[in-house]
Design goal:
The protein is an alpha+beta fold. 26% of the residues lie in helices and 33% in strands.
Length: 168
């Protein structure tokens, strides 16, 4: 994004913790972003995500508008280049290209880091996230039906993945 309303994509730092966790809380409260029901503390959040692939989108006042991060899917060496990612955008910043800017930068980071598969599970009701991922080059692998219970009912999860064109 350029011009008025532009965002800057930067590495996520501990100084961003409070705002990052607040955006995560808002995503959880919306009901269609995650199976999680409570926000972890910063230490748990921090330790679960790869430090080299964590980003924030900042506005001109250094306010965090969104974040993206990855977690390894397994410790087995065969899966060393496979990560699961998350992208969250502050509700009032949605529809402004923040998510696509974050996801594009995250994919550049994972490509450069030798990650060959970036994947995620998305609730089918989260049509904005599905559209964002399609625009960023992800493909739908399939749907896991009744994968887990959430807010009193079963939830399906659409599996998406993106294979890196940079990793052979």
């Amino acid at each position: 994004m350029t011009g008025e309303g532009a965002v800057r994509i930067r590495p996520m730092l501990p100084a961003h913790a409070e705002q990052v966790l607040e955006i995560y809380r808002l995503g959880i409260a919306g009901g269609d972003a995650t199976f999680e029901t409570t926000v972890p503390g910063w230490e748990a959040f921090d330790s679960a995500r790869a430090p080299e692939h964590r980003l924030v989108a900042l506005d001109g006042d250094d306010r965090v508008l969104g974040w993206a991060a990855v977690s390894p899917v397994s410790e087995r060496c065969a899966y060393a280049g496979v990560v699961e990612h998350s992208v969250y955008v502050r509700p009032e910043a949605r529809g402004r290209g923040v998510g696509l800017s974050l996801l594009t930068a995250l994919l550049a980071s994972t490509d450069a880091g030798g990650i060959w598969t970036v994947q995620s599970g998305i609730f089918p009701e989260n049509t904005a996230s599905l559209a964002l991922h399609a625009k960023a080059g992800f493909r739908v692998v399939g749907t896991r039906e009744r994968l887990g219970r959430h807010r009193g009912g079963w939830r399906d999860v659409v599996l998406v993945e993106r294979r890196s064109p940079a990793v052979d």
